[in-house]
Amino acid sequence: MNSVFCNATGISEAQFLEAKHYSDVLPASVADSCKKSDQACLLQEVPHLSTEWLFFVDGREHLLEITKVRLLNKDGSIRGLIGIATDITERKEHEKQLQHIAHYDALTGVPNRVLLADRLSQALARAKRDQGLMAVCYLDLDGFKPVNDNFGHEVGDKVLVEITRRIKEVIREDDTVARLGGDEFVVLLVGMQAPEECAGSLTRLLEAINQPIEVMGRLINVSASIGVALYPEDDHDPDTLLRHADQAMYVAKQSGKNRYHLFDATNDQLARTHHELVQQIGHALVQGEFELYYQPKVQMQTHRMVGVEALIRWHHPQRGLLLPSQFLDVISGTELEVALGEWVIASAIDQLRVWREQGLFIEVSINVSAYHLQTPNFANRLKAQSDMCCPGNCYGTLQVEVLETAALEDVEGVGNIIRECKAFGMSFALDDFGTGYSSLSYLSKFDVDVLKIDQSFVRDMLFDKGDHAIVQGIISLAKAFDMGIVAEGVETDEQYQALLEMGCEVVQGFGVAEPMPAASLVEWAAKQKGASV
Question: Is the pTM of this model over 0.85?
Answer without folding.
Answer: no
